[in-house]
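[Primary structure, fold]
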Amino acid sequence: MGGNFAPKYYQIEQALRERIEHQRAHDPLPSETELCAEFGVSRMTARAALQNLVTEGLVYRVSGRGTFVAEPPTRRRAENLVRFSEEMRRRGRVPSSKLITSEVRKANSNEVHRLQLPKSSDAVAITRVRLADDVPVALEKAVFPGDLTALMQADVTTHSLHESLIELGRYPRRGYSSIEAGAAGDLESQLLDVSVGTPLLIETRLILDQDDRPIELTETRYVGHRYVLDVAFQVDTSRGSRPGQAF
């Protein structure tokens, strides 16, 4: 005897995955009511199937309108730092930013150390939400030396801060970054339109200018299912492994 013994919500989820593969971003998906009629299930079962897809970032919901196919995640090579706005334009998406805070304040001890500032120095701190096609992708907290107060006059909603640095004669040249996993708290949930606990990719980077002076210390919290870092690597064979040796 044959039969499909998988839970109903799982059957619906797999059926929707197959449909999503052949649809474009922002195409509508069946409503919970339509799924109930199509698969002969309760509304709770249909909702569970859709919620799993929402959690994975394959679909998104708009209150009062329905469920839609999500944009595929943005990708970046981890060894390259391309300006967010330029990166989005290359992918045919419209970049924008929402300013959260912009202030001059005392640099904390970590900022003094990383930016090589004198003790009790001021710092320029700018916090933005970075969006692609109006979808929140990342929460960015950038800190600059206090002598760069002119950055606060830039239109950071449409203008790149790196372009503003170049206009001020400070050219971003190279840098260092570290990447770790995290989870959305209340603030990220509110600003990035995700549930508390949603996986985040946290990148902390220090950028140096043309004279190897630190000019930017930034923490960027990317929504995990909306942004991907690709990594190219070489295998370390320095510990005496030989061709054909099993690992």
Notes: The chain has two domains: 8-69, 74-230. The mean pLDDT is 85. The helical segments are 8-21, 32-39, 43-55, 84-90, 109-114, 161-167, 186-192. The two ends are 44 Å apart (CA to CA).
